[in-house]
């Protein structure tokens, strides 16, 4: 399982130019720093899908970057099983797979070269790549175009290759940052099916999105981040009950309008 | 680190832009461009040289002989214009009615008889250096004056050998102790690093942008950062790729220059070029290449640091533009007259390499200076790499 406790993160306003472009500065700006996260907590068990919601600039991407060790938090704790992500980032990265709307693939390499490159960086053996990886290729139906350059593949094909890239090292936790943004219906369907498959295989899946229907379809748990704080974190059922008619959009708006946070303990 | 290096290299070598910069540019485009410029330049010079100079002679009655010399001279063509003042002479040239106005002293014959020096004036536009008007008119006047001198001395009864002794009482034979290679190195040796060192920079520039800002823009850098590979290994892998590309550009350029020099030398029967290049030992060529390694490393580290900071391809290009101008300053040193490789110069990175390449080509290098050159340039390269690694570890740089 993955557990996140009281994450905080600040960025210097002089160096973090993105802050000026995308994030609200009024409430979280203080003494030349931007308080991106001021208390984010949630947890997700094996075989569970956690939907991470929040308005633009709320702190979702920062949270996911901390989970995957790309950023270090100022305080707080992230644990994957027994591994402290902050103290042992290399060990934690072995356990995490990451996927976003941008495929993160190298266009001038073939699909196979891309997958094998990332597999080797994760310490995957050649034997595994020669045998067990074939099953992943078949499941995703990418065997036919494995030796074509990624720049010549369609968006849907690229997204499938990207999925294979993200799971080739059999991660315990899969982190998805707005994975369906900008994708067509077919490519979106591929991603959603894949999330369901990972869930069934016992992987803990955390995915951020703006699409509440996707959350409703897949998530067991929901965390809403608002202004750098986890304003809500509990089961999907508890989230639905926030609205009298169990409407997800109204539940979401209800959380954003509340000043009191609701975070269920582990 | 090696996996990152291999991946980056494969990716770069599949990129047509990179192939253009490191292979096509030095092997084909530069020689064709330089050849074309040389051909056009020499054609223009030849055309100008063969062009008849249109002249106006003011006070032609002062010397009928000179008027006749000019009239029958193959380089000059007489133009009939009535000019009375200096302003009119200048205006005639400005309005392209004539190329040259020669004003004879009206009292020339009397001055000649009384042994006085006669003052003449020549007006022409010296801005057109290719035309050679000044030289042509000087030759014509010299020819005329020599003829007069011969006549005067003959009238006074001097023999032919005495005439020769009068005209050239001292004959100086100049013996140049510099061999062909040294002269070549002095004149062109400073120019070679002026091409090679910026090529190391431009050779590194595109890969640096692609591997830093390009990866940020395409979103692949984040995927790479999420792998269990240290940032040190990632940055060194990228740095090595850029350095290898820069070195390849420089090596291909050296090969191209030697190759085309031999081809041009044999085509136009200019044996000097090929014999001079052949006189440079393989050891010296290897040294030149080795000298370029730390230079390429410095450029690669600095460019990668800039590229990582930039958040887009375009932004990186904007930051790197001024760097190409800054690089010119340290490599101007070997082109300055009187600058020689000494201990002080050998400690100044980039300038020391430029000077050493010049002296290697001249064959006059003191090999003991190679140690301080390699140490100082190597240390500067190391400092640049350390900075680049530090820069790459900063969140505020990676996630701007």
TrEMBL record, chain A:
One Pfam family of this chain: ABC_tran
Entry-linked InterPro entries: AAA+_ATPase (IPR003593), ABC_transporter-like_ATP-bd (IPR003439), ABC_transporter_ATP-binding (IPR050763), P-loop_NTPase (IPR027417)
UniProt keyword annotations, A-Z: ATP-binding, Nodulation, Nucleotide-binding, Transport
UniProt GO molecular function: ATP binding; ATP hydrolysis activity
Record flagged with keyword ATP-binding: yes
Residue ranges of every copy of the ABC transporter domain listed in the record: 2-252
Family of this protein: Belongs to the ABC transporter superfamily.
Protein name as annotated: ATP-binding cassette domain-containing protein
Organism: Thalassotalea mangrovi
Automatic annotation (TrEMBL), chain B:
Top-level taxonomic group: Bacteria
Listed name of the protein: ABC transporter permease
Alphabetized GO MF terms: ABC-type transporter activity
This protein's UniProt keywords: Membrane, Transmembrane, Transmembrane helix
Transmembrane segments: 20-46, 239-265, 285-307, 319-339, 369-392
Pfam families in UniProt: ABC2_membrane_3
Domain ABC-2 type transporter transmembrane: start-end pairs: 18-387
Compartmental location: Membrane
Keyword Isomerase: no
GO-annotated cellular components: membrane
InterPro entries referenced in this protein's UniProt entry, alphabetically: ABC2_TM
Species assigned in the record: Thalassotalea mangrovi
Keyword Membrane in annotation: yes
Membrane protein topology class: Multi-pass membrane protein
Span of the signal peptide: none
């Amino acid at each position: 399982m993955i557990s996140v406790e009281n994450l905080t993160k600040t960025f210097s306003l002089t160096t973090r130019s993105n802050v000026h472009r995308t994030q609200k500065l009024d409430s979280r700006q203080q003494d030349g720093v931007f308080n991106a996260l001021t208390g984010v907590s949630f947890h997700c068990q094996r075989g569970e899908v956690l939907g991470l919601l929040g308005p633009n600039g709320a702190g979702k991407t920062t949270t996911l970057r901390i989970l995957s060790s790309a950023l270090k938090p100022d305080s707080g704790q992230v644990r994957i099983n027994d591994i402290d992500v902050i103290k042992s980032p290399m060990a934690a990265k072995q356990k995490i797979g990451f996927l976003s709307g941008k495929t993160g693939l190298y266009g001038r390499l073939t699909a196979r070269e891309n997958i094998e490159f990332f597999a080797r960086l994760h310490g995957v053996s050649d034997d595994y790549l020669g045998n067990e990886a074939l099953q992943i290729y078949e499941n995703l139906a990418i065997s036919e175009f494995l030796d074509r350059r990624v720049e010549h593949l369609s968006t849907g094909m690229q997204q499938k290759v990207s999925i294979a890239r993200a799971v080739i090292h059999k991660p315990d936790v899969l982190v998805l940052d707005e994975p369906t943004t900008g994708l067509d219906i077919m490519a979106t369907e591929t991603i959603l099916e894949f999330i369901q498959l990972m869930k069934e295989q016992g992987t803990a899946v955390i995915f951020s999105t703006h699409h509440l229907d996707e959350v409703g379809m897949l998530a067991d748990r929901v965390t809403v981040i608002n202004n750098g704080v986890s304003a809500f974190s509990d089961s999907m059922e508890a989230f639905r009950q926030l609205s009298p008619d169990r409407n997800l959009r109204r539940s979401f708006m209800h959380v954003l309008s509340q000043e009191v946070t609701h975070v269920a303990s582990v | 680190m090696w996996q990152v290096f291999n991946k980056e290299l494969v990716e770069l070598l599949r990129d047509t832009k990179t192939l253009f910069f490191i292979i096509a540019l030095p092997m084909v485009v530069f020689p064709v461009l330089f050849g074309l410029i040389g051909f056009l330049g020499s054609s223009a010079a030849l055309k100008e040289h063969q062009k008849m100079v249109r002249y106006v002679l003011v006070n032609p009655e002062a010397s009928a002989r000179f008027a006749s010399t000019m009239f029958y001279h193959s380089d000059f063509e007489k133009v009939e214009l009535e000019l009375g003042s200096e302003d009119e002479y200048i205006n005639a040239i400005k309005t392209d009615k004539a190329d040259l106005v020669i004003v004879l002293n009206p009292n020339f014959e009397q001055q000649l008889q009384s042994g006085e020096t006669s003052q003449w004036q020549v007006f022409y536009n010296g801005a057109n250096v290719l035309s050679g008007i000044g030289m042509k008119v000087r030759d014509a006047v010299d020819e005329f004056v020599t003829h007069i001198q011969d006549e005067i001395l003959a009238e006074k009864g001097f023999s032919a050998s005495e005439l020769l002794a009068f005209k050239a009482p001292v004959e100086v034979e100049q013996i140049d102790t510099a061999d062909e290679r040294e002269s070549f190195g002095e004149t062109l040796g400073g120019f070679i690093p002026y091409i090679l060192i910026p090529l190391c920079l431009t050779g590194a520039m595109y890969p640096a942008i692609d591997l830093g800002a390009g990866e940020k823009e395409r979103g692949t850098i984040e995927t790479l950062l999420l792998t269990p590979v240290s940032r040190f290994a990632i940055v060194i892998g990228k740095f090595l790729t850029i350095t290898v590309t820069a070195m390849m550009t420089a090596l291909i350029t050296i090969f191209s220059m030697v190759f085309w020099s031999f081809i041009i030398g044999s085509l136009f029967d200019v044996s000097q070029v090929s014999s001079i290049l052949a006189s440079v030992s393989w050891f010296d060529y290897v040294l030149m290449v080795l000298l370029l390694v730390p230079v390429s490393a410095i450029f690669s580290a600095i460019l990668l640091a800039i590229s990582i900071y930039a958040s887009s391809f375009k932004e990186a290009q904007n930051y790197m533009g001024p760097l190409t101008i800054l690089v010119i300053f340290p490599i101007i040193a070997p082109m300055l007259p009187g600058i020689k490789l000494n201990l002080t110069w050998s400690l100044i990175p980039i300038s020391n390499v430029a000077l050493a390449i010049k002296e290697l080509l001249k064959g006059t290098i003191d090999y003991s200076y190679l140690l301080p050159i390699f140490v100082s340039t190597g240390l500067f390269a190391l400092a640049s790499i350390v900075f680049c690694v530090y820069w790459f570890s900063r969140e505020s740089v990676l996630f701007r």
